[in-house]
Amino acid sequence: MAKALGLQLYRFSISWSRVFFEGTRNEKGIQYYHDLIKEIKDSGMKPLMTLYHFDHPQTYEDEFKGWQSEKMVPKFVEYATFVFNEYGKEVDLWVTLNEPNMYCTYFPSLFVTAGLYKQEDINIYNCMRNFVLAHAQSYRAFKEAGMAGQIGLTVLLMHATPNSTRPEDVYAAELFNQVHAGQVLAPIVVGDYPQVLKDELSDKITEFTVEEKQLIKGSTDFVGFNIYFSMVASWKDPNTWAPCLIGPMMGKFVEDLPMASINVAGGIDVENPMKTFDRIAPDSIRDAVLWAWNSYKKPIVITENGVGDSSNMGKKDQRRSVYHSAYMRTLLTTMKEFKVDVIAYCAWSLIDSYEWSAGFGRPFGLVHVDYEGKTLDRSLKDSSQFWIEIAEKRVVPLVEEPITTTPGPPASPTASTSFASSTPSTSSASSTPSTSSASSTPSTSSASSTSTFLLLPIGAVLIALKSFHCDVPY
């Protein structure tokens, strides 16, 4: 199906327990991924391998509660080194860890609810610190092994913009961005936590040692982002404030920042919170990419961007084309206007898959899976023509469709820029789990709401943007 869609890159994650445990090889599992990589390349696509997408041996949970313990760091590095040695000659684009900032907040809270953890077992800041050290040591192992490819890390990026131009609101937005995403990104780029994080949460974090700072600084070739929607931040009096957004996805971060009121941009559809993931708001990718580029000046991979079908579109998913047209066009415009180096773009997801908090009720797939009829047959959706046209013409087509859901806030002025005539200087790709970039002036936007979510590690699809332009009049 990925080949039929004309996709150029296939993002997938490898299952740790399936291939290697404590020095022991699982030959059948190892061969499975050799076969998969060969099939991807034989189908004209480039493999993008993610080493870890929330999937580690149960033993490490039983013994020391996984990423809550620093004991997880050497375990992961041993596994990563094994994978590099096994597949390094076949793959040249790698992600070590997917969404540490999501994992450390989302999963532990669910483990408490399920009775697997006690509240005192959880420390989201130590958890994220362990992820940073595991990534950095794996990055060094990759380079020391002489691997020729590029390797990075992916975070969930729910970029917050200030509710007003008041300095207090601007500070609240930057504080959230640095605590939620910068807590992982700043260490691996500049070698330390963001100063604002140390100023506000010095009692929560464990500072890196001098040796650790040397290890983590510059330990990434690119930064990967999973982008779906934006946040809005405003400054509140800590003595009178009540949380606006509390939930497994990021509740603890909000609780620890009583001075910052955080909410989903466009508001929340209380009656249907799953609609957070089918709102068309392309400014979210523009703002997120610009914040990341201006902050770190590292090449970017959009590792996830997509629309969750909470309206039961099924195969008649023309709206998915509208979404990806809007997001991809906005991404291209942003790349051209600000000379942003975007390597790849990945659409979440290739096939309709199981979503942690929504089961099969919020399909993101470009390919339909027959769950209702129980045949599990795969078939292309109507939106497939959008991807096929991109592959054939090297143009992101303008796709418009009346949106009947409650409109969100007006698009910001920056969303109406004209398209540059020159092609972007960098290339980009599309992969299974990911989001898409939008057109500069989307016709309408749909309602937004908050809900918890998690994405299953299924294959991905890539689209190179190097020679792309937007098919729209100036």
UniProtKB/TrEMBL annotation:
Which PANTHER family does its entry note?
GLYCOSYL HYDROLASE, LP05116P
Gene3D superfamilies named in the record: Glycosidases
Gene behind this protein: LOC113206368
| SUPFAM superfamilies named among the record's database cross-references | (Trans)glycosidases
Disordered: where is this region? 401-448
Q: Where is the active site?
A: 304
**Protein name, per record:** beta-glucosidase
Leading EC class? hydrolase
Family annotation (Pfam families)? Glyco_hydro_1
Q: Which PROSITE patterns match?
A: GLYCOSYL_HYDROL_F1_1
Enumerate the UniProt keywords alphabetically: Glycosidase, Hydrolase
Q: What biological-process GO terms show up in the record? A: carbohydrate metabolic process
Keyword NAD tagged: no
Q: Give one GO term, molecular function aspect.
A: beta-glucosidase activity
Q: What is its EC number?
A: 3.2.1.21
By sequence similarity, the record places it as follows:
Belongs to the glycosyl hydrolase 1 family.
> Which organism is this entry from?
Frankliniella occidentalis
Q: Which stretches does UniProt call biased (Low complexity)?
A: 413-448
